[in-house]
Design a protein that fits this description.
The chain is of the alpha/beta class. It folds into 2 domains: 238 residues, D-Maltodextrin-Binding Protein, domain 2 (3-Layer(aba) Sandwich), CATH 3.40.190; 142 residues, Periplasmic binding protein-like II (D-Maltodextrin-Binding Protein, domain 2, 3-Layer(aba) Sandwich). Helices cover 36% and strands 14% of the residues. It has 16 helices and 10 strands. Helix 7 packs across helix 16 and helix 8 packs parallel to helix 16.
Length: 409
């Protein structure tokens, strides 16, 4: 794997999902946004979101195009048996006449943000009409800098009709004004019952001395801090700096007692598979994929305290030349057949619940359709918590300053 940057930079979506067959997933640039060159309404150049006072008029002035440039993570969409084509994209082009340029350019959020932010600040188009960004600081920064175009929701009726309640009105983008979820995942506990010698049902089990030296924790400070709070019965979504300090205290206690073998990146799943660790913080997709590879002993559990849920989000950058085509894709995606076609390949948590029946009855893949790791029951989703949506950099830095010493020290 590529060497990781400091823990506060590690909110990589490829660290939270699958290791196989998807093998590549997952100080940021700050400062006041530079003045962007204002463009006339309807012009297809780089429009400065800060200068647009009437987005309805802006959208009304956009002209339909037959192109669409889609930036995504590697191996994060359906692939045909020849390994080259994407059936969902081909069907979209056939249905709409819109040709898709699909660019697997996003390796992680920090590096992709570092690539597009200077372009956006200069008032130039990124070349992308849609990009997939994980909820967390980099998405927040894009929103704060007004680098994302507010969505014309009337053009995406399938979202309101078919989206899971778990992806509507997220705290990081109230009302889904700028984003719609591509895929989601859970951060709970993975374990091998043959090694733990009992079933696991609580985050308290990650502090059990019986597992000393065989416990895995994440190096990502957002994930780590959230688990510390959940152990204490604190909701990370609405937590305060005082709560963060309390969580850091119990995490430090866990470390000082030498319960933790290591603070892991994606490599935790290999340590769980080979028995170096018996119990660990885990991402739901990893356990699904490990079991599909033959590690049938591994289990994933949503602890009694609940767990965190994360989201990768579709959004339109300012300056997109084909924004109506991007909206057409979003609306197309939020249907049972298209979401099902893609879900049957990527195996994360699908944002369209009706895709389950499509996978079961049309694709005829009961392993995916019936997996609670791909289609969690509503009772499980009701026990999930969103990550803390930071209001500004100062708040984000305070979080990092509190939790990073646990990983680094």
């Amino acid at each position: 794997m590529t060497k990781m940057s400091p823990p506060d930079e590690q909110r990589l979506a490829f660290l939270r999902g699958l290791t196989q067959p998807r093998i590549s997933r997952g100080d940021f640039m700050r400062g006041a946004a530079a003045s962007l060159a204002a463009m006339a309404l309807g012009q297809a150049g780089a429009a400065d979101a800060a200068t647009v006072t009437d987005w309805h008029a802006w959208w009304a002035a956009q002209k339909p195009t037959k192109e669409f440039v889609f930036a995504n993570w590697p191996l994060y969409i359906d692939v045909s048996s020849n390994g080259k084509d994407h059936p969902s994209l081909d069907a979209f082009t056939k249905q709409t006449g819109i040709a898709v340029t699909y660019d697997e350019v996003i390796q992680d959020d920090p590096s992709f943000y570092a690539k597009v932010a200077p372009v956006l600040k200069s008032g130039q188009p990124t070349g992308y009409d849609m990009m997939v960004i994980t909820d967390g600081w980099y998405l927040t920064e894009l929103l704060l800098q007004k680098f994302l175009v507010p969505l014309w929701r009337a053009k995406v009726p399938n979202f309101d009709k078919n989206a899971s309640p778990s992806v509507k009105n997220p705290p990081y983008d109230p009302g889904n004004k700028h984003t719609m979820v591509w895929q989601s995942g859970l951060t709970g506990i993975g374990y091998n019952p043959k090694l733990t010698k009992r079933e696991i049902n609580s985050f308290e089990d990650l502090w059990d001395p019986a597992f000393a030296g065989h416990i895995g924790m994440f190096s990502d400070t957002n994930e780590l801090g959230s688990v510390g709070m959940l152990k204490l019965g604190i909701n990370p979504t609405t937590s305060t700096p005082a709560d963060w300090t309390k969580a850091a205290s119990v995490l430090r206690e866990q470390k000082d007692k030498k319960l933790v073998r290591q603070y892991y990146d994606q490599s935790y799943i290999n340590a769980l598979e080979n028995g170096d660790i018996w119990i660990t913080m885990a991402w739901s997709g990893d356990i699904y994929q490990a079991n599909s590879k033959g590690f049938k002993d591994l289990k994933f559990v949503v602890p009694k305290e609940g767990c965190s849920i994360w989201h990768d989000n579709m959004c339109i950058p300012v300056g997109a030349k084909n924004p109506l085509s991007a909206l057409a894709w979003m609306n197309y995606y939020y249907t049972a057949d298209v979401a099902g076609m893609i879900e049957d390949y990527v195996n994360y948590i699908c944002p369209v619940p009706a895709a389950k029946d499509y996978i079961l009855n049309v694709i005829k893949d009961p392993d995916v359709a019936n997996s609670p790791l791909v289609f969690p029951p509503e009772s499980e989703l009701a026990r999930t918590h969103e990550f803390r949506a930071f209001k500004n950099y100062a708040e984000y830095k305070k979080w990092v300053d509190i939790f990073s010493p646990i990983v680094q020290g």
